[in-house]
Amino acid sequence: MVFRLCDSAGKFPWEWNVGDATDWFDHLRSVRGLAQSTLRAYQGMIEAFCDFATSPAYDWSVRSAQMFGQVFSQVVNEFNRITHSQTNEAKPEKRAFTEDELQQLFDLLDVEYVRVLESGRSGALTVLRDAAACKIAYGWGLRVTEVRRLQIVDFSANARTPYFGDFGNLHVRFGKAKAGQVFKPRNVLTVWQWAAEVAEDWTNNVLPRYGEPLTDLFPTNTGSVVSANHLWQRISDCVDELGFPPGLDFHSLRRSYATHLLTSYRYDIKFIQMQLGHEHAATTSIYTLPAADFQIAELARVHREMLEATGTAVALPKRKLRLPPRPPLPPNRKKNRGAS
C-alpha cells in the first residue's frame, strides 16, 4: 500500500500530505469502485505506517529532516478517514435470487451439460461438477471457499433426520476467518430432501469418474480442487445468458439460502444465524432481506388464511424448488489418480 500511494502521488513517503492520500482514496472509490471495507483496510495500512514513521520511539523523522529537509506526517485523519457507520456496507445492487430465477439457473446448468454431451465435446463432467457445486452451495448456504474445499468425509448422517441418509449433516471446515485468525468451522444441518439427493448422486455416481482414490468433493482433472474464479465465472455466464438484472453472483446463492429459509419456509432467525455461521444476528439480517417475490407470497398467505377463516378457502399454489432428473452420464473413462 505504501508503494501504491507513492506511485499515485509521485512522491516519497516523507513528502506525503493529507491531500495526496485523499486524492488516492477518492480515485479508488469513484474510479476503481472499491468497496468501503476495502478502502478502510487500505487506510488502516497507511495510517499504521505513518504512526510508525512519526513515532518518537524511532528517529525516522529526524533522519529524514537531516537527509531531505522534510519529515514524515500522518496523512490519514478525521477528514478523509472512512468510518464504519452502517451495519451493511454491501453494494446496493447485490441481492438474492428469487425462487423462479433460481429454478431457471439450475435448469440452465443442467441444459449446458446436455449441450456438451450431445455435441461430443469434452468437458461434460466439468459442467456436471459445476452444477453440483452450485446446487450444494445453495442447499447448505455456503461461501465459494467453503464449497470448493469440501471433502467427502465432511458429510455425515444426522440421527434426528434419518430420511436424509448419509447427508443429514455437513461439517464446514473452512468457514470465513476473522482477520489474522484461522478458519472457523461449523456444522450445517440439511433442510431439504432434494439437496441431500443432489449430494448423494454426485458423491456416489459421478465423482468416482474422476478416478480413485478421491478425497475432495469437487476435484479437477489435474488433481487440484475447482478454483473460486471458475465457479464465479460459471454463475456469471449463466446470469448473462438468462438476462437477469445485475446484482447476482455466486455469493447470491448464500443470500438466497438465508432469504428463502426466512421468507418462504418461516425458519427462525436464530436457526438461520447458526446455519450461516454468523456470530451476530445483525449480520444474518443483511442476508435475509426479502426477495422481490416475498411481498406477493406474503399477501397470498394472508388472503388464504382470511378465506379459510370465513369458510371460503381457495387453493393458492405454493412454489417449491424443482430439480429435474440428471441426464444419463457419458461412457466411463475411469482414471487412477494415484496416492496423491
From TrEMBL:
What keywords appear on the UniProt entry? DNA recombination
Any single GO BP term: DNA integration
Protein source organism? Microbacterium aurum
Name under which the protein is recorded: Tyr recombinase domain-containing protein
Q: What positions does the domain Tyr recombinase occupy?
A: 92-301
Gene3D superfamilies xrefs: Intergrase catalytic core
Annotated region (Disordered) at: 318-340
Q: Which CDD domains match?
A: DNA_BRE_C
- What molecular functions are annotated in GO for this chain? DNA binding
Superkingdom of origin organism: Bacteria
